[in-house]
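User: For my dataset I need records formatted as: sequence, then structure tokens, nothing else. Please produce one.
Assistant:
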Amino acid sequence: MKALTFIDLFCGCGGFTLGLEGAGLKCLAAIDFNEEAIAVFKNNLPHVPQILRSDLTKLSPSELADMLRVDDIVAHLSRDGLMFIHPTQNRSLTPREAARIQSFPDWFEFPVARTHQFRVIGNAVPPLVGNLNN
């Protein structure tokens, strides 16, 4: 079975990438503007094909699109939600789409402001994690 792939937007030093790779996913690219974070990322995860020290807002849509041929996109939606993050459309994910990606059922409500919805959803442990042994 082919491993799922992802890019890590605003990757920091690579903690989330390390976790996803531990779960069997493959990181194709990582982007952060922080020089020290990228140095740590490169030191610990040199196998990632594209590790970019760049301001994501400065990348052209075509440059970003070249990296978006992946199965999963990792980002901090409460801060980055206005970026080109939808895998096939030039728009952000909605909070409901983000919740579905995290495996929350549609009946599960997030009755807080939109920015807070992204933070709550993004910081949550996906419900399916509780079913890993089933």
